[in-house]
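sanity check this record:

:::
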Amino acid sequence: MSFSNLLPRAPWTPPYSKRQAARASQPVIQQQVAPLPEQGQGTMTLVQRRNSPSVYSLLPLPRYEQHSAQRPKVVKRGRPLRPADALARQLEGRCAGVAIAYLEIMSARRSRQQLAQWVSADCFHRLLPFFPKNPRQVRQEMLLTLPPVLLRVRAQKVHDELYEVVALLRCVERVRVVTMQMRLIHGMWLITAIEQPQSRLDED
C-alpha cells in the first residue's frame, strides 16, 4: 500500500536553462533617475486642489534659513503669542508656500493663475491690478534675483473659521513681510486677504 498520494506535492521548478543562468550571472545595473529641474525653490510639495478632477497640485516648498549655533539669540519683545494648535501648523505650511508664490508673481517669475486656486474669488480680483503683466512692469523694490528664503511663519486663531498668518521672508538683502487671512469657506480653507508685502533692509 502506497502513501505517496497523501504527501504534499513538491513545488514546481522550471527546467534548467543556460540562457537563464547567463542572465542571472550578469550584474544588475540600477537605473539612475535624473534629478528634477530647478523650479524656483527646487523642491515642491503636493497639496489639495479645489475645482479640479485631480485632488493634488504643486506649491513651492519653503527653504528655511539655517542659523549658526554661534549666532547671538534675538531678544523677543512684545506680548507672547498663544501656542499654535495642529490646524495652525497645517495652515502655516500652506501659507508659507503661497507667500513665496505671491512674491514670485509680483516679480513676474510665476504665473498669476497659480495663485487663483488658493485664494477666494474676491481676493484674487482685488490682487489683479497689482500683478505685473511682464517683467518691465515689476517695481524696483519687488525684483527677485534669488528665490525667497522663509525665515518664519506664524498662524494665530481669531475664531473657529478665521486665522491670521504672518510670513517673514528674506529676499537677498531685504526682509519682506506677507500678511494673510485664511477663512473656512464651504469646508475648505482659502485665503481671503493678502496685504501688499512690506519690505525693509536686513540689519544683520
